[in-house]
Amino acid sequence: MDSGTQTLARYKMFIGGQWVDSASGQTFESENPFSSETWALIPRGNAEDVDRACKAAHKALTTGDWPKLTATQRGALLRKLGDILATKAKALAEIEVRDNGKLIAEMAAQCAYVPQWYYYFGGLCDKIEGAVIPIDKPQTFNYTRHEPVGVVACIVPWNSPLLLATWKLAPALAAGNTVVIKPSEFTSASTLEFMKAFEEAGFPPGVVNVVTGFGADVASLATHPLVAKVAFTGSDATGARIYSDAAKSLKRVSLELGGKSPNIVFDDANIENAVKGVISGIFAATGQTCIAGSRLLVQRSIHDQFVEKLVALGKTARMGDPMSYDTQVGPVTTRPQYQKVLDYIDIAKKEGCVTVLGGGKATRPECGKGWFVEPTVFTGVRNAMRIAQEEVFGPVLSVIPFADEEEAIAIGNDVVYGLAAGVWTQDMRRSLLMAEKLQAGTVWINTYRAVSYLSPFGGYKRSGIGRESGQEMIKEYMQTKSVWISTATEVPNPFVLR
Q1: Is 290 a catalytic residue?
Q2: Does domain 262-445 have CATH number 1.10.760.10?
Q3: Which residues have a Cβ under 8 Å from the Cβ of 176 and sit 6 or more positions away?
Q4: pLDDT tens sequence across 475-488
């Protein structure tokens, strides 16, 4: 990054180990959600840029120094990268806040946690073993080996760019693949800054590449003939299009998509803890997470009491500058998303929902010119309503009462998504039952929003395909080859299949 006119930061793309302008020379603006002002210029890539990035990645995979490294050497390089990222965590967090408006407290914690994925998968590199198979054919030796799938396209959203890129990058690189990253056009700066760590670590040119631009301009990434796999995080609508495009050339895909997660509170729960967990599940990150607990299911016997406590705590939320560690709710990341959240609030009101907290734009002085929405809670919600069925991706909570376990499970599963769910209860039998019956890739009991490099993450139903993180996930980026060796001294009848 260097300083340009009007103090705007000016970035270049990272392709083949070089910092380059877009092929067209065009740029686009990146806005700060808190000030609503342009702060950076990003290269506007197109199909030509995609092509040169994919060719650079393919060259690195086939004729460069990358495939010459042993698995142990790859692991050492990934762990070195983790060390470098640990020193850059604060600076990267500040760029993410400027670009996407999420709280510095959360971004700093995320960026400090990111190195753990590179340590973990770096350590896993030389632990992926094939097998010798006691085959049923005489005088025949058979074994398997796991090999990289090839060039991986990583398409990353705007809410947590570096963390979600890392969920794909770490296992993809550990498996020996090369990568082309396409960050969101709304939050490209931190990913480009991220590449400096790869340079410093000494990754061979072309192993990791970044193409920036608008989706329509660089859509060819999902169909490029040199791309073997597409790893995408984003909305289910976009994921479905990518899935369809990738299928035309039979590319592998992993998709981490939307959610409409239920946060379920039973009458035996620790109420104070549950209230905090529900607040964290929907208002942290301004509700802009795929795992947001946007549907609060409360047992009828405690409904009014719980809502009263929830609203009381929600009213204390400190809004304002996301760069301040005292701020608890920041702005919505993009102008279009800001309007979308406000539109859904209007839809809920027209559906007959009762606003018990917030319900519109935040006009507090501390919010300045930013794209702020008041933390909003609706009661009187029926699960069939749009506000309970469609992903808002903002600080909007729908409260739905239930009578018993059976009804909680029925309501919880009655959406097209299945990414996550929360359950608040002191009953172990009930905890195990809910964990079994809820159709979700992650179920949290008496906690919410916990993730780790050690545990697989992904969704059921329209929430996605495949998993990220955890030991087994490296195989999402590998393919298995079966090798047969005959030890016979004479070839048997060539006309008979052995």
Answers
A1: yes
A2: no
A3: 66, 67, 71, 74, 147, 148, 478
A4: 999 999 999 999 99
